[in-house]
Structures are given as C-alpha cells and as structure tokens.
Design goal:
With 207 residues, the chain is α/β, with parallel strands linked by helices. It contains 5 helices and 8 strands; from the N terminus they run E-E-H-E-H-E-H-E-E-E-E-H-H. It has a single domain, classed as 3-Layer(aba) Sandwich (Rossmann fold).
C-alpha cells in the first residue's frame, strides 16, 4: 500500500545502495546517513517509519521503528512502529504534529519499495524525500530531507497484491539491518554533536 519512490534534487543527489546481507551493511548504512546529517545546526533529527502491519511488504517501516524503539535511541526522535504506525490514513496528521513538536526538524523518511527482480533486498540511503503511496496510486505528501528505502519485491504488475504477498523473512532481515545502521549512526551523531558543543563552549570562553 505504501510503496515509495525516492524524489531527488538533481543539484544535491546522493544515493548509496547496500545489499541487506552484505557483511558491511551496518557500517555502509550508517556512513550514508552520517554523510547527510546536519551537524552543529541545532536541528532535531526525526525518523519517520512509514507503513502498516496489515501488509507484509509494507511492514518494513514499522518493523524498523519497532526495533529502534526496543533498543533505544540517544539523539534521534522516532515515529512509526508496529504499535503506533505512520500510514496513508494518518500521515498528514503525523507530519503536522512532528513540525509542531520539533523546530526545523531534519526528517529521515523510511519506507518499503518495489523494484527490479535483481534489486530485491537492496537498501538505499539517499538525499531527498520518499513519496509514500506512489506504487499504489495514492496522493500523499513527500516525506523527508533524506530517505532510507528497502526494495522488498518486484514492481510492475498488481503491486498492491505483490506487497501483500512479500515474504516476511526477507522484510524482517532487511528491517534488522536498517535498524542496526540507524542505531550506529545515532551513536556517531551523538558523539560528534557533543564534541562540537564542547568546542563551541571552549571557543566562547576564550573570547
């Protein structure tokens, strides 16, 4: 239901493709996120995991959110879990709430994608938003300053049915790797922000 297509700004394109079973996938996902995060700008980093547990393929986002919630994040703010999903029905409401609660949030949109057969299992980290609902002809607002998407099945024909019949085993494995990369990035971001704040405090005292 919520198949996404990344929307890119051609002047600011950044896209990293990682196979979910790559032994270095956690590090590659983390590095891709870190390369796009705003450091030293006092912006909340907000993760929005889009999808629903009513469709196996579309459960990738809320599974990622659930794994992140269970582990705990240091700096990133999280929306979208199996218990409290962000999906087509409440997306506008959730995004409005996020912008009310966070000043100039830097949003990471996470969602499932359909793609070519050879790319199933591929995780993409890139600049620009995701467009939820594009694969099933739903008009929903784009989400994110950057995106993390996972190709869970094949596109091109009866896509709603394809999402419904995606293997949960694949989706679970992809969600775990995506969550591991995000948690690693969260730790790196927390440490870098603390270092920047310390440097700022020292420079301020010297003035």
């Amino acid at each position: 239901m919520m198949k996404s297509q990344p929307l890119f700004n051609p002047l600011d394109m950044f896209d990293v493709n990682i196979k979910f079973d790559d032994p270095a996938s956690t590090k590659k996902i983390s590095s891709g996120i870190i390369d796009l995060l705003p450091f030293g700008l006092k912006r909340d980093v907000v993760i929005v995991c889009i999808g629903t547990d009513r469709s196996t393929g579309d459960s990738l986002g809320p599974l990622v959110g659930t794994f992140l919630k269970e582990t705990g994040l240091e700096s990133f703010h999280l929306y979208g879990t199996l218990e409290d999903p962000v999906h087509a029905v409440n997306l506008n409401e959730k995004m409005e709430m996020i912008h009310q609660m966070h000043f100039r949030p830097f949003i990471i949109g996470i969602d499932a994608c359909l793609g070519r057969l050879k790319n199933i299992g591929m995780i993409k980290v890139g600049s620009g938003p995701v467009k939820p609902g594009a694969g099933v002809k739903k008009e929903l607002p784009p989400v994110g300053d950057m995106h993390i998407t996972g190709i869970v099945n094949v596109s091109g024909h009866m896509e709603f049915f394809v999402l419904q019949n995606t293997r949960l085993n694949l989706v679970m494995k992809m969600a775990k790797q995506m969550a591991a990369g995000i948690m690693d990035a969260d730790t790196i971001y927390t440490n870098k922000e603390a270092s920047l704040q310390l440097e700022w405090d020292i420079n301020t005292e010297m003035i």
